[in-house]
């Protein structure tokens, strides 16, 4: 089996317009969540979110591109450019044929659906722009990354709600590990902070009106974010041969299904995915120093996740660190695992553990070291990144310090 | 009316081709102007919006349509007919 390393990262989120800016904010424990600035916000009962601020599509793309790129595609393309530039790779010939794109998104072009439903239902028009379909389709972002960078190998989009990115990155990892691909551009994006997108989430009554406070006893729900993160996964020997800077190694992946409930999480399903990722990575629980939690800030997720971690790690659960960066960038749904992988890489590469901000009151049901409110310097060798989706689909990645 | 229809169509086509309206003549074909099949459907959308008409055009058989897209002049003529039909 081939070894798989990460040689590029890129991002845009409520915390910044690049991976570096996003990580800087995580180090500072800065909160990117604020009042939503969207049309008809006054008709929403949830009015906060982790919106990408100060973003001007026209500064990044021309008019014809904007006609084809939904916001989730725009975010993906920007993150992919940054990641691929950092990797130093360019794709032609045999390398292009053996390199692909696997991205996660839950909703795809939600803004495009929203705007055009508005056109036909609210404005009563009987005609929509010709590119509505290619703009809203979930695979639009993957396809545009493939076109922009000449990636001609296996490419597709994964939609598993809040675990989409982790499932996508798990696929990318296994495709390189098995020899199916040399380089995979992977990660995910989401942009559903529009009237219809937020209204749909309101219906579930799981959203907080004031803040995302994972693991805190006074937590009162999740807060939605938007953005993208994209990584370059590359076969280790090739990366080493060309002298690429290696950010981290991907060493394991596991996915499970709860097979129980469409929204309520299951401790067993989560625990099996966590244990499975460690088994796949051939590491012992004691080697894991940090877990980037799914940590949505809902009552149900956080206590179930902590119970699953306690079950899998036993005594070591009290020695490892576990934090949820959703407290800062919000829940990016299908893009969330990708933005959170940045925190995992930072832990391994820079020895900085991103905090869980907004932590106010200990919860006996979440009695782990959640790295409250301030980032911490710590040396860790192995980290995990959890994602547990609605629908009971769980995906956990394991990473190690660069070889 | 005729001048208005022509001017508006040239304006739409020029915008799609990223040209000045003065660079678009009645004899120009969409191909000459560098407008591809995607650009064509965008032009038709813009024409429908501008004149509030339904253009009978199927991208699967562009030449079989009653709507003649072989040149700027033919498009103007076809749109005029549709506008007249609408008014009748």
TrEMBL record, chain A:
Q: Which InterPro entries match?
A: Beta-ketoacyl_synthase, Ketoacyl_synth_AS, Ketoacyl_synth_C, Ketoacyl_synth_N, PKS_Beta-ketoAc_synthase_dom, Thiolase-like
Q: Which SMART domains match?
A: PKS_KS
Keywords, in A-Z order: Acyltransferase, Cell inner membrane, Cell membrane, Membrane, Nodulation, Transferase, Transmembrane, Transmembrane helix
Q: Where is it located?
A: Cell inner membrane
Residue ranges of the Ketosynthase family 3 (KS3) domain?
1-401
User: Which PROSITE patterns does this UniProt record tie to the protein?
Assistant: KS3_1, KS3_2
Sorted alphabetically, the Gene Ontology cellular component annotations on this record are: plasma membrane
Role summary: Proposed to synthesize NOD factor fatty acyl chain. Involved in the synthesis of a highly unsaturated fatty acid moiety, which forms part of a lipo-oligosaccharide that is responsible for host specificity.
Q: What is this protein called?
A: Nodulation protein E
Q: Which organism is it from?
A: Pseudoruegeria aquimaris
From TrEMBL, chain B:
**Is NADP given among the entry's keywords?**
no
Q: Which residues form the Carrier domain?
A: 1-83
- What residue stretch is flagged as signal peptide? none
Corresponding gene? acpP_1
Q: Name one GO molecular function term.
A: acyl carrier activity
Protein origin, superkingdom? Bacteria
Name it.
Acyl carrier protein
Keywords attached to this entry: Phosphopantetheine, Phosphoprotein
Looking up SUPFAM superfamilies in the UniProt record yields: ACP-like
BP GO terms, sorted: lipid A biosynthetic process
Read off the lineage from the record: Bacteria, Pseudomonadati, Pseudomonadota, Alphaproteobacteria, Rhodobacterales
GO-annotated cellular components: cytosol; membrane
């Amino acid at each position: 089996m081939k070894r798989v390393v990460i040689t590029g990262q890129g991002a845009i989120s409520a915390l910044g317009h690049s991976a570096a800016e996003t990580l800087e904010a995580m180090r500072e424990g800065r909160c990117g969540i604020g009042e939503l600035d969207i049309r008809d916000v006054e008709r929403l009962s949830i009015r906060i979110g982790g919106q990408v601020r100060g973003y001007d599509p026209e500064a990044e793309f021309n008019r014809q591109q904007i006609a084809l790129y939904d916001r989730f595609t725009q975010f993906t393309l920007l993150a992919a450019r940054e990641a691929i530039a950092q990797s130093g790779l360019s794709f032609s010939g045999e390398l292009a044929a053996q390199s692909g794109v696997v991205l996660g998104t839950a909703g795809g072009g939600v803004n495009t659906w929203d705007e055009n439903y508005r056109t036909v239902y609210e404005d009563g028009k009987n005609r929509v722009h010709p590119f509505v379909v290619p703009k809203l389709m979930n695979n639009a972002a993957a396809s545009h990354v493939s076109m922009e960078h000449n990636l001609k190998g296996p490419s597709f989009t994964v939609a598993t709600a809040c675990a989409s990115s982790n499932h996508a990155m798990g696929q990318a990892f296994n495709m390189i590990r098995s020899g199916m691909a040399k380089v995979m551009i992977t990660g995910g994006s989401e942009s559903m902070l529009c009237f219809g997108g937020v209204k749909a989430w309101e219906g579930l009554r799981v959203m907080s009106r004031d803040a995302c406070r994972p693991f805190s006893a006074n937590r009162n729900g999740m807060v939605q974010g938007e953005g993208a993160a994209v990584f370059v996964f590359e076969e280790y020997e090739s990366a080493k041969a060309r002298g690429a800077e290696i950010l981290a190694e991907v060493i394991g992946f596991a996915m499970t299904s709860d097979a129980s409930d469409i929204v309520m999480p299951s401790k067993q399903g989560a625990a099996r995915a966590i244990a499975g990722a460690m088994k796949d990575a051939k590491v012992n629980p004691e080697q894991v120093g940090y877990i980037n939690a799914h940590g949505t800030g809902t009552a149900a997720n956080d206590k179930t996740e902590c119970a699953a971690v306690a079950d899998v790690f036993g005594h070591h659960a009290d020695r490892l660190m576990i934090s949820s960066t959703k407290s800062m960038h919000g829940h990016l749904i299908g893009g969330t695992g990708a933005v959170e992988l940045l925190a995992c890489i930072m832990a391994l590469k820079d020895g900085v553990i991103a905090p869980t901000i907004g932590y106010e009151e200990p919860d006996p049901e979440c009695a782990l070291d959640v790295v409250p409110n301030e980032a911490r310097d710590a040396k860790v060798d192995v980290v995990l990144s959890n994602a547990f989706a609605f629908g009971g689909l769980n995906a956990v990645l394991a990473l190690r310090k660069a070889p | 009316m005729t001048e208005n229809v022509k001017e508006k169509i040239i304006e739409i086509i020029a915008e799609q081709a990223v040209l000045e309206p003065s660079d678009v003549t009645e004899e120009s074909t969409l191909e000459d102007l560098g407008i591809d099949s995607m650009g064509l459907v965008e032009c038709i959308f813009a024409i429908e919006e501008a004149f509030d008409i339904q253009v009978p055009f199927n991208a699967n058989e562009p030449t079989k349509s009653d709507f003649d897209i072989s040149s700027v002049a033919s498009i103007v003529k076809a749109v005029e007919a549709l506008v007249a039909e609408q008014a009748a």
